Amino acid sequence: MANQVLYRKYRPSTFAEIVGQEHVVRTLTNALLLDKVAHAYLFNGPRGTGKTTTARLLARYLNCAVLSAKRSEAMITRASAEAFSEGGFQSVCSKENACINCSSFFLGNHPDLIEIDAASNRGIDEIRALKEGIRFSPVQAPFKFFIVDEVHMLTKEAFNALLKTLEEPPKHAIFVLATTEIHKVPATVISRCQRFDFRRLNLDEIKNRLSSIAQQEKVAADDEALELIASYADGSQRDAESLLDQVMAFNDRHITLADVASVLGLIGLPFIRSFVDALALKNAPRALSLVGEAIEGGYDVEQFLKVLISYLRDVLLLAINPQVIEYIAKRSGNDYAQAALAHAQMLQPNILTGLIERFLEAGKQIKYSPSPQLPLEVAVVELLSS
User: Fold this and answer.
1) According to the CATH classification, is domain 203-264 in 3.40.50.150?
2) Over the stretch 152-194, which tens digit does the pLDDT of each residue have?
3) Which of 66, 164, 196, 349 to pair with 313, CA 20 to 30 A apart?
4) 6-197 has CATH 3.40.50.720 classification
5) Rounded distance between C-alpha atoms, residue 18 and residue 165, angstroms
């Protein structure tokens, strides 16, 4: 039997395990305890930040038989509700000792939790079938819970059908619509939901979570290795855990920075720093040599350009406003931020914008080039020969 992937194995089973979304968790736990759960929610945010997991937890706690009894005790004042939410939720129905509803949620087979992937079920017929199902009472729990993932993928006709359901839902139906592209969701739908914006996780939040998982898996992992994984996850906890899973398949004893860079083909900070040093000093032979090393090392040219352009963008921001260093350090680490600041002091904003524009153009040319690295090499020669 295949092993369960990390992001599923360590999916949060309580609100306390949700990382980086304290504003969402606090509001939802208070709503649960004060009996003020809305009939429809809209969870918006980047991929892998906990939208669907939070929706499932809301469904579980709303239908938890044990919590229902405790909720009546805590529903006196907001203060008492917040006091309970500090620790009460963590003591309700563990996996080892759960009520009938929570047991079904833990197993992932609760009959009153309906999840729909709008990316593959985006038409009006699917929404009409959903509307028909809503009319029937819950099978096992007090509430029937509907999670519509990637809701922005629905067609215009499907949105219109969904809108009518959101306007007049039966009392037993709760909706959570999840999206990564809020601008594609009609304003009429947004206005009928309580909206929560999930944020990208910062580097420390992701790294700490990865470290905890590695410890539970009994795998040693160097700090620099976890930091590289976290920085490439771009704020997505799920992506970070998938990357860690891949590296652990290569080395499940002691993960090093070299392991991560080799297995995932990721460009480390030292390499990018050396390349930008060559650009700043107009050292074309050195820059071209580094491009050659990257190709020989098995690095993907498009990935190289993506990382390079992202780094140059941060350098540009620091060249214009050095105070953004705190934001960059929180997102990508202190070593990264200090390296970018040093380059910001070497390169003028107009030079940086020229580099970024030329490398963006090189990225577009790769798919038409007989050699993937050729557009990058031509860009280097043009930029450093002028």
Assistant:
1) no
2) 998 888 888 888 788 888 888 899 999 999 999 999 999 999 9
3) 196
4) no
5) 30
